Amino acid sequence: MNAIILAGGLSRRMDGTRKAFLPLGAETFLERILRVLGPLVDSFLIVTNEPRLYERFDAMVVQDEREGVGPLMGIYSGLKASESDMSFVTGADTPLLAEPLVRCLMESARECDACVPRWKGELEPLCAVYSRRCLPAIESFLDGNPANPRIIAFFPFVRACFVEEPVVRKHDPEGLSFLNVNTRADYDAIRKIHGARL
User: Less packed terminus of the chain by CB within 10 Å, N or C?
Assistant: First the structure.
């Protein structure tokens, strides 16, 4: 299994700050994600429209096939470039991934095309496992909905399975894997959580 890290956002609410490189303790967001996922995957793909920024990492750097479409295009571009049938997908702005939850998702994905956790009643499609078998359904939605289609829109057309909240809580009791950074306040909150856990 590979890992696909989406790093293509414009970071408008962070004044264009590249969130992958925000510091969190002694590491950046991206460095922590790579460290946590490293023992679990065969290789990494980073999907970005600024490939030069990521050349120093031990990862295949992939560009979106079309820019400005949103994270579903990032998933599509990463899956298409991946040499593994299954890939774990996350964003570069979610640094508090819980390794036990990732393992659980990977194990639960064996009979699925998409294995997605549910947290507080909502699906979390950017902390999930996807198969390359999803590509035709994703491509259909991207062609028919060019303006930022929702990731979950293609789920009814593939074998999607969902890891429900009671199971998620066993592996990530506070749902830290789903905390992402959109604003400075989000960043301050994540730093506070990380500091309290050290």
Answer: C
Note down pLDDT in tens along the chain; length 198 residues. 999 999 976 656 566 678 999 999 999 999 999 999 999 999 999 999 999 999 999 999 999 988 878 899 999 999 999 999 999 999 999 999 999 999 999 999 998 999 999 999 999 999 999 999 999 999 998 887 666 678 999 999 999 999 999 999 999 999 999 999 989 999 999 999 988 875
What is the three-class DSSP state of 127? Answer: strand
Do residues 54 and 6 touch, judged by C-beta distance below 8 A? no
At 50 the three-state DSSP class reads coil
φ, ψ at 148 (rounded to 5°): 55, 65
In this structure, are residues 177 and 128 in contact, taking their beta carbons and an 8 Å threshold? no
Does the reported pTM lie above 0.90?
yes
The CATH number assigned to the domain with range 2-197 reads 3.90.550.10
